[in-house]
Amino acid sequence: MARLRILVPLLSILGLFALLVKRLADFGVFTPKQSFNTESCRVIANFSSCEDIQVDYANDLLYLSANNWTAYFREEYSVQGGIYVLDLKQKNAKPKLVSVDQPAVFHPHGFHLYTDPETKEKVLFVINHKQKGHSAIEVFDVIDKDTIKHRETFSHDLLINANEVLGVGKRQFYVTQDTKYPLNGITLTVAAALGREAGSLFHFDGKNWKTVIENLNLGNGLAVSPDHKLLFVGETNKKRVRIYDGDIKSGDIRFKASYNLDLFPDNIEMDSDGNLWAAGFPNLLAMSERIKGRDLKVPVRIMKASFEGEKLKDLTKMLETTGEEFMAQTVVVPYQDKMILAGIFTPEVRMCNVPKDAPRSEIHFDTDL
Predict the structure, then answer these.
(1) Which of 14, 22, 305, 314 is in the most buried spot, having the most CB atoms within 10 Å?
(2) Cα atoms found within 13 Å of the Cα of residue 236, Cβ hemisphere only
(3) Edge-to-edge strand order for the sheet containing 311-321?
(4) Do 344 and 330 touch, CB atoms closer than 8 A?
(5) 14 — phi, psi (to 5°)?
(6) Which superfamily, per CATH, for 27-353?
(7) Contact 137, 175 (CB under 8 A)
(8) Which of 128-132, 159-163, 241-245 holds the top average pLDDT?
């Protein structure tokens, strides 16, 4: 009996320890640090931290969603952000603020450059974190390469921690919410440990909001296929992308497939050939601790996924850092024969070569929804 009284607590402690080790492994804590293709990168801008970037390929312009996230996470909301543009054709160009007609409180996060397929008019949909727990979608019309004009603001009571937005019309969009819990609270920590982050995907049809998905494990990046028949939804804490088809513009979508991307994906971007580019982290816990204020180096991984319809055909590594060379890149966009990187905790925007011999990852069809 005495042995049993000792054995039961011991087994409980061992069980909790095993669960902790598994969750740490799930978050990539034991992933070996590696470096690949970092020497090909050069800095093309150095001015602010950019969580997201977008390319206007028709005019060779790079739009940058810039905000002082270190100050924001300290709840210093008076430090305002902005939308900048960089002329990629001009050597040694400097980013120029174009959101002069912006809301008084403006902390831009994920954003999307939408081009109307018929009129070719361009619209910027921008997530604005007015303060902790309050997100809105700001809509800007692109007037010319030097000017964007604020048109509308959309918000909803359920939109608390918006992450990424994808325009599918001049007033229609999708927006992911990473979690409904406070980002720096104990509730989120517990939810993450249990794999219940409660992320969502919302759709706005120009008049009404609709919850499309309710069970995302940290909903993040969004992309649409070149033919606008498939919607791609990044799910950071599950290291995967979900794929949906249906009536993309109306929000009437249905699940088709999901795949492991061999990284914890942040922003995702689709190129004109139907390749999905993903920036993210081999060690998600390092990024989480950095957001909480710890001075950690955050390794980065860049992946390219080639699809045939909804079927993943090839998954290759484009770049990886140990966190020492540069860190915390949250977005990658392809441009000509290069790729452009930016990040939430680094002021540099980098242009890197696309490697000729990229290491391939094993393809895993993910069914754990």
Answers:
(1) 305
(2) 27
(3) 264-270, 275-281, 300-308, 311-321
(4) yes
(5) -65, -40
(6) TolB, C-terminal domain (2.120.10.30)
(7) yes
(8) 241-245
State the pLDDT at residue 18.
55
Looking up tokens 């081009």 gives 115
| Residue 48 pLDDT grade (very low, low, confident, very high; cuts 50, 70, 90) | confident
Q: What is the mean pLDDT of residues 34-51?
A: 92
Is residue 26 packed enough to be buried (19+ CB in 10 Å), middle (13-18) or exposed (0-12)? middle
Q: Are 340 and 351 in contact (CB under 8 A)?
A: yes
Non-local CB neighbours of 290 within 8 Å, separated by 6+ positions: 296, 298, 328, 345
Of 86, 130, 83, the C-alpha closest to 111 is 83
Q: Got the DSSP string for 15-66?
A: HHHHHHHHHHHHTTTTPPP--BSGGG-EEEEESS-EEEEEEETTTTEEEEEE
* Confidence bin at 20 (pLDDT 50/70/90): low
Rounded to whole angstroms, how far apart are CA atoms 7 and 329? 47
Both tokens assigned to 236 = 């950071």
